[in-house]
Amino acid sequence: MLGIDSEADVGVCRRKSVSLATQLGFDEVKTGEVAILVSEMVTNVLKHGGGRGKISIGKLTDESGRKAIEIICCDSGKGIPNLEKAIGDGYTEKDSLGIGLGTIRRFSDIFEVNPSREITDGLIESTHLFKHCLRVVKWVPTLSWKGTNRNLLIGAVSHSKPGETLNGDCYVVNHISGTKTIAAVVDGLGHGKDASMASGIVKEQILLKSNLSVDDLLRYVHHATKGTRGAVIGLVLIDTERNIIQFAGVGNIEGFVHSGDDKKSLISFGGILGHQIRTPRIYEYSFKPGDVICLYSDGLNSRWNPKEINWKEHPQKIAEDLVSQYTRLNDDTTVLIISYIA
Q1: Separation of alpha carbons 310 and 102, rounded Å
Q2: Which CATH architecture has domain 2-139?
Q3: Maximum distance among all Cα pairs of the chain, rounded to whole angstroms
Q4: What is the pLDDT of residues 100-132, one digit of tens each?
Q5: Which residues does the chain have with pLDDT short of 70?
Q6: pTM over 0.85
Q7: Which CATH class is domain 152-340?
């Protein structure tokens, strides 16, 4: 446990966190993220938390043996009156850029404001001098990149609304192992700069946090986009070893699995990432060689019939044909096609 009283404590706490992160097995990039987390937390105490506080930097192990660094920081300030605004980049009540809490949230796997007293026991003094706390947890990555999932063919098209420079839609495909791939189509609300910023944050965080389970990843990107215009998403984890996919959707991203003559719609729920979502529900579907996943934003109109598509063609051709024939002229459009080849 370390005290926070002056600018010198930023460096002291950062060095302790870097040392522990290295011992736990974080690579150079993730260790750098830990250093940023701690620097921002200590700086927030000095600038916004009354100028005094305490910080605990320790290790955490879950029931499966997974390791993490846990950081709990308490201050003597007045608390955070509007958490959602504070997390959004650009919000500040002091002479600063207002990006600290947003950075802390994006670089952590668990982010809690004022966790239970059992967790903060020993940091909160009986005098209640240090009564506002922030807890973050960052897990040591357990998955490593093992190359492209060679069982998948991928095609995608994403373009902005005619007349707009920035695209409010995006897609992401990340092979997290030789048999597992995470993919998504994201639509920032509206179009233009603000929509592009929201969808871009979701894409960035999916790439950074692909090792999380689908429901945890969905919750994570929801919190990461607080303070933005918001976005909707169709998120799928493909497992070609088990021949299944797991899907979770928020909002009006449409999707289905085409299997022979059968079409299984992917179920989404209402909501907006960054604003309000229901408890994530994960749906599991069979996904075998010959099957095709199709995900698309609402920039694609509903006048096309999946039965008229030759799903044996290359996914890139299918995506390009759909966009060229069925794009709305008043919105961004994204289509992602993933085929499972033997």
Answers
A1: 45
A2: 2-Layer Sandwich (3.30)
A3: 72
A4: 576 787 788 888 888 776 665 655 554 456 678
A5: 79-100, 102, 117-130, 142-147
A6: no
A7: alpha beta
